[in-house]
Amino acid sequence: MITVEQSEQLRAWFAERLPVDVYESLVSVTADREEITVVGAVPADETVAQFRERTREQRIEVAREAEELYRRKVAWGVRVGGETTLFTHLAVPVMTRLRQSERQVLDTLVAGGVARSRADALAWCVRLVGRNTDTWLAELRASLDKVQQVRAQGPDVSGEPDSRKSGSE
């Protein structure tokens, strides 16, 4: 998870490097340990396919630079009207241990045709929680940012004396 400050710096980096005519406006830049996702609004008269074709070379150039700098893959998306479409984004495997009652939930979703596999069922559950708890998750992320800020202001526990505090100048 990255801090709000890091997120703002990342957004500014992309805003500076994206040519003016790529997006009508930059909607969001989000990141996790593996990927940075850049989403922008496109003109109402342009389709997702037209956008992808028109901006491919520009996006590839910016992505290469970002991937080298941030050591993460870059994914792209567009917002047309109220719909967001992501493309070139990762699906990252996640290992977890589940008890029988939790596995039974996944198996019920598979048996009911909601999902093709336990992995799909787990992804479905995560999306459902994300949609129904947006406010709570936003508050949790904000509190984690605060924890990281407090940690950064804490004492240096590396064992090395801070030369700024010694009177040996």
List keywords for this structure.
disordered C terminus, 5 helices, 169 residues, alpha+beta, 50% helix, 4 strands
Please describe what this structure looks like.
With 169 residues, the chain is α+β, with helices and mostly antiparallel strands. It has helices spanning 4-17, 48-70, 100-111, 118-132, 134-153; strands spanning 25-31, 35-41, 73-80, 83-87. It has a 4-stranded mixed beta sheet. Strand 2 (35-41), helix 2 and strand 3 form a beta-alpha-beta unit. Helix 3 packs across helix 4. 9% of the residues are buried.
Structure summarized in a few sentences:
The chain is an alpha+beta fold. It has helices at residues 4-17, 48-70, 100-111, 118-132, 134-153, and strands spanning 25-31, 35-41, 73-80, 83-87. The chain is 50% helix and 16% strand.
Low-confidence stretches: 163-169
Largest sheet features: 4 strands, mixed
Distance between the termini: 39 Å
**Helix percentage:** 40-55%
Tell me the fraction of residues in β-strands, as a range.
15-25%
Average pLDDT score = 88
The Cα radius of gyration reads: 21 Å
List the secondary-structure elements in sequence, H or E.
HEEHEEHHH
| Strand order of the biggest β-sheet | 1-2-3-4
What coarse outline follows from CA principal-axis ratios? globular
Instruction: Find the structural class using helix and strand composition.
Output: alpha+beta
How many β-strand runs? 4
Helix tally equals 5
